[in-house]
Amino acid sequence: MKAIVLVGGQGSRLRPITYDVPKAMVPLRNRPFMAFMVEFLRAGGLGGAVLSLGYLPDPIQEYFDGRNLDGFSIDYAVEDRALGTAGGIKNAEEYLDGGPVVVVNGDVLSGVRLSEAIAKHKESDALATITLTSVEDPTAYGLVEVDHDMLVRRFLEKPAADEVTTNLINAGIYVLEPEVLNMIPAGREFSIEREIFPYLQAEGRLRAYVSSSYWKDIGTPRSYLAASHDVLSGAVGAGESFDFLQVAPSAEIGKGVKVLPPVSVAPGCVLENGATVGGRSSLGRGCRIGEDAIVEGSILFDGAEVETGAVVRGSIIGPGARVGQDAIVRGLSVLGARCVVGEGNVLDQGVRINPGVVLPPRSMSF
Ligand code: GTP
């Protein structure tokens, strides 16, 4: 059995990072998200995946081309214009074998027991089974009501607090019978969530599989950073032991540097004298942390630089971006690729700086 992985979206909520890096390739503990996706599908007993691509397909294909996945097959179905979630599934149909298929949103990090979801689906007469997960604050999501024998009863899109009847949301992992693919028109934009599932629900052919396993989507800066913290802390995965202090041997560590686990420091990083790399941070290849600079709870993409005395907390620094001397970047701020935050600037409260933007130095006089 194969999976279709939907990775063709623009990832607009994760801009400015996704102007340069497709959401499917953002790093978690210095591995691209797609590596976790393949592990998840293999653990579910699947033999291969068709990647349904559209926006920025090249970095994804380059990552997989020539990579040994021990027999797990990868095919690509590339759209020349966005076809939506159902259109992306239809576009991948030619690579399937005609049986049921698993479909996964390509931005979901989860420990859902896929093989169990597939088995439950096969036991039922459903045309589709949709995996649900519970969230603490359901008001930001589309909710799914189910009845006592797991038939989907109703979809509620982003309800007000007093309309919340369930905390179960669509986890973006489905098992579909081939008949469902026949319902999708070829070559045009179509949505599985809005156009196929409500129809199947009305026909009584849509079932739910409720999962209590780890689940997080990486679609927003907040959830991506949280997923990164979870991966660094070992909260995701099969519980295998790993090194909480993952510092590449080629990293240069100066005098008096503090590196507090869990962290991941990729090859070629330079941590200058007195720098602190605090827990739950990941530094991509070739990052430079200047003297006495502090990085905590943050994701730095390849080649990012934090200059002398600067502080980066709970933020995302894009590839090749630079945080100038004594600048502060905190509070879920996101810097796009190659942008420069000049000396002494303070960025806070989810500020997003587009790729290549240069913020001039700010006077330090009081
Ligand atoms: P936002 O722009 O932030 O909403 O992100 P998105 O469109 O990338 O993701 P969304 O959560 O809306 O979509 C769920 C999944 O479907 C993501 O993994 C997307 O990559 C994927 N997806 C969305 N639209 C398309 C599309 O037109 N074609 C394909 N192949 N995949 C899509």
Give a quick account of the main beta sheet: strands, pairing sense, barrel closure. 7 strands, mixed
CATH topology of the largest domain: Spore Coat Polysaccharide Biosynthesis Protein SpsA, Chain A
Bound compounds, each kind once, are:
guanosine-5'-triphosphate
Which runs of at least 5 residues are low in confidence (pLDDT < 50)? Answer: none
| CATH superfamily (homologous) name of the largest domain | Spore Coat Polysaccharide Biosynthesis Protein SpsA, Chain A
Structural class: alpha/beta
Strand percentage lies at 25-35%
Shape: elongated
How far apart the termini lie comes to: 65 Å
Give the total of domains: 2
CATH architecture field of the largest domain: Alpha-Beta Complex
On the 0 to 100 scale, the average pLDDT is 94
Per DSSP, the total helix count is: 7
In total, the number of strands is: 33
Main-sheet strand order equals 5-4-1-6-11-8-12
CATH uppermost class of the largest domain: Alpha Beta
Q: What is the helical fraction, as a range of percent? A: 10-25%
Please state the CA-atom Rg, rounded to the nearest Å.
22 Å
